[in-house]
Amino acid sequence: MERWERIARYTLLAVGVVLLSLDAWLFLFNGGHTRAVSLLFLIPLTFWIFWQALYEDNLGTTKPPTRGERVMFALWVWARRLILGSISALCAFGTWHALQGQEFRIAMPMAFFAVMAGWVAVYGGGKSRSMSDDRRVHRQRMKRYRCAQILPCGLTPPSRGRLAASRKPPLTSNVSRLSCHTKSHAGLSR
């Protein structure tokens, strides 16, 4: 990890801790509108900051996701779908309502916002600022967080670290070993 990446990570963690403290203070000691602002804006923002600081760079790695990373990803995806899906539905309703009143100058931006919010609700954002890689990055994320930790041939993927030497692949029959055609496990089928 480069120096600027460490600085960015520590800065995001510090901001996340401050926002988490602010969330707790607003939620516990205030009521009414400030509690609603805390629930609707600051908590998702805090969650996003911790995701960016801890797990965003793991997408292109072969390191298996941790349980915490999987939980945070699932929470983030469903919160994004719920919030942005609701915004998309409200904008679509606003478009329909504006079209009923012949207000095309209002209907066009509302339709645009409905489509954009719906797209981001379903696919999220990619690495570029355009929509060109959103679906590809979405598929990569789904593959990373929903993939089984057992390969099709029944062997676990090789891991790094001190425990790698002590782990043994699960016992499988010769038939399942012969059906595995991956390069990394080609030596085991002989």
Topology:
Blueprint: H1 3-29, H2 33-54, H3 67-100, H4 104-123, H5 134-146, H6 174-178
What does this structure look like?
The chain is globular. The chain folds into three domains: 54 residues; 89 residues; 42 residues, no CATH class. The protein is mostly helical. Helix 1 packs antiparallel against helix 2 and helix 3 runs antiparallel to helix 4.
Quick tags:
3 domains, globular, mainly alpha, 190 residues
Multimeric state: single chain
Overall, the morphology is globular
- N-to-C span: 39 Å
| Computed CA radius of gyration, to the nearest angstrom | 23 Å
Structure summary:
The chain is mostly helical and 190 residues long. The protein is built from 6 helices and no strands. The C terminus is likely disordered.
